[in-house]
Amino acid sequence: MYLHPNPVKENMKVMKPISLTLVMSVFVGLLGMWIGGCETQEQKVERLIGELQDQEWSVPSNVAYALGSIRSKDAVPALIQALQDQDVRVRGNATEALKNIGTPEVLKAVKEYESRQ
User: Fold this and answer.
1) Counting Cβ atoms within 10 Å, is residue 67 exposed (0-12), middle (13-18) or buried (19+)?
2) pLDDT, tens only, 29-48
């Protein structure tokens, strides 16, 4: 008499590593979300401001856009400095970000910048 291997037991051997991998992936993802969630809004803005100095044009350009979207007044000095960037795309997004922030002194700085262009 021939006995077939227990299919449930055989599948468990295959599923065990997959299950462990899945659990570890979920754990790492949740840990990352928790750590990222521990940052205050001010810390996130400071981190973004630091990214305005990146050498790849797309990073400061996207950061300027993001800072304008959240209307971060803390980012105003860095955004005004970004108006001097070599890349026109960075300068353009910095200009729009400052317009979104929209305080009178910021709008004055944007007007002065645009008059020099």
Assistant:
1) buried
2) 666 666 666 778 888 889 89
The pLDDT of 15-42, averaged and rounded, is 66
Report whether pLDDT(89) > 70: yes
Retrieve residue 18's tokens: 């997959």
Is the pLDDT at 101 greater than 60, yes or no? yes
Residue with tokens 């996130």: 44
15, 41, 70 from 3: Cα distances, Å: 23, 64, 67
For residue 47, give the H/E element and its range: helix 41-51
Using CA atoms, how far residue 106 sits from 3, 30, 54, 87, in Å, is 81, 39, 23, 21
